[in-house]
Amino acid sequence: MLKENNQLSFCLSSHASLFDVLIEKDNFWRQLKDMVDFSFVYDELKDKYSSTMGRKAEDVIRMFKYLLLKNYYKLSDRDLITRTKTDMLFKYFLDYLPEEINLIDPSLLTVFRRERLSNKENEEETSTNLMDKLIAKTVEIALQEGVIEVKNKIIQDSTHTNAMYQHISPREELIKQAKELRKSIYKIDETMHNKMPKKRESTGLLEDQIEYTKELLNLVKEDARFTTIPQINEKINMLEETMNDTEYEIEYSKDKDAKVGHKTADTSFFGYKTHIAMTPERIITATVVTSGEKHDGKQLQKLVEKSQSNGIDVKAVIGDGAYSEKENIEYCEENNIRLASKLSPHITHGQKSNSNDFEYNKDAGMYVCKAGHMAIKKKLTKDQYSKYESYYFDVERCKYCSYKEGCYKEGAKTKSYNIRIISDIHIKHMDYMETEEFKELYAERYKIEAKNSELKSNFGYDKANACGKNGITIQGASAFFLVNIKRIIKLKEEKAQNNG
Q1: Structural domain count, the chain
Q2: Is residue 446 assigned to a domain?
Q3: Which one of 50, 309, 359, 403 has the largest count of C-beta atoms within 10 Å of its C-beta?
């Protein structure tokens, strides 16, 4: 049943006391439930449901809580419902009775992810609004609890997330998961080699692999020896969910939103970047999700403005060299914000008419063109007024590039991009870099690297669990909400100990 504020509440149960016996007071999910009024989720998603058509929908708040558990524990929809039937912690967090076993059908979770948290007309705006809303809620809680003491500066950085399919296609992912399932089955019964459906891998068609996957699943699911073994059953459920998602949106599943990004001159990844701002107390105040090739520095202004709207009076921004481009220095100067970002002589984006077609990768020390190709070498030249850096690209790629018009001249033996590496505003910033204030601010930059590591290792943000920018944004919304709440709880405990 619902309270007046749309929060779920328990019906009377003679077994409700089990929760107090089995779930400790300091359990994270118990503290999360007690701390957060989830009615804001209802306000955000209520327009996704009709009050006059169809059967009564499952409560929006409960569905959202299911999503938090799914992403944190990396469970398929089916395994999540199965575990909830026997896991008292899950039942408590989801506001079920201890004895309740008639839960939702897993298909409702699929619908919730695909339709309620998505809008085909404007998917990006829908999921981004949810992410911003969740972060804003956690910052509001942090301010109310008094755990954000430094309210005038933020630290910025980006973290990369590998796409669900990496450099392989949806077909190859299905082949990979099917192979892992077969190997698990052979360990139980080697005679199954002769009973498996005929493979279609040689055709190269996604549709044929989907058909094979269906046959494999039907065969395995009919044998109770396999479905009763949790490790194998999880592989069955995950393969089935991947197949259904791929079949539902074959084109979208190719993850056309993901792009190649460069971590260094020699290493790259295929996926997305999440640009993050946080306080020195390690509370995330704003995020922006982009494809992998986007430049970190271009997101500074968005992160500042989002943080300000969430109650942070930004007077200082701390970041690595990617944020020291000319536009950022000018923006911070105009808005009376101190920019603690070490100046690189390469960072002078925007001085040329086509500067938006080339972005500087700070880790590789090279420029990347609009097509995602990185320069292969660079050369320094001088004249009597200033210095220039020339970045040279692989001409063979330029000849066949879809963006070559206006960029590459037919027949040219080289393709370079030249930048001027000195300006008055950079000279002024170089002077600021020598001050004690700059050094004190910059000394706090390391804190965000630990936050990025925590998101990947503890919250599964190293790899996308769905396709497309909408999918990674929804995944990020859950991860950032949980990581902030966890940090708030930690800071509250430390504050209580210090006051005690």
Answers
A1: 3
A2: no
A3: 359
Beta sheet of 377-382, edge-to-edge order: 377-382, 387-393, 415-420
Is 463 a domain residue?
no
Please indicate, yes or no, whether residues 93 and 32 belong to a single structural domain of this protein: yes
Which one of 367, 400, 421 terminates a domain? 421
CA pair distance 223, 204, nearest whole angstrom = 29
What is the torsional sign of CA 87, 91, 97, 100? negative
How far is the C-alpha of 397 from the C-alpha of 395, rounded, in Å? 5
Which pTM does this prediction carry?
A: 0.70
pLDDT in tens, the chain (500 residues): 444 445 555 456 667 778 888 899 999 999 999 999 988 887 777 666 554 444 446 788 999 999 999 989 988 899 999 999 999 999 999 999 988 888 999 988 888 877 767 654 555 565 678 889 999 999 999 999 999 988 899 999 999 998 876 556 677 788 888 999 999 999 999 999 999 998 877 777 778 888 999 999 999 999 988 888 988 988 999 888 888 877 765 544 456 777 777 766 566 788 899 999 999 999 999 999 998 888 898 999 999 999 999 999 999 999 998 898 889 999 999 999 999 999 764 544 434 445 567 887 877 888 899 888 899 998 877 665 566 778 899 998 898 888 888 888 888 989 998 877 666 787 788 889 989 999 999 999 999 999 999 999 999 899 888 778 888 888 999 999 999 999 999 999 998 888 76
In a domain, 260, yes or no: no
Structural domain of residue 235, as residue ranges? 170-254
In a domain? residue 308: no
3-state secondary structure 113-158: HHHHCCCCCCHHHHHHHHHHHHHHHHHHHHHHHCCCCCCCEEEEEE
149/257 Cα distance (integer angstroms): 38
Q: Which helix (H) or strand (E) holds 367?
A: strand 366-369
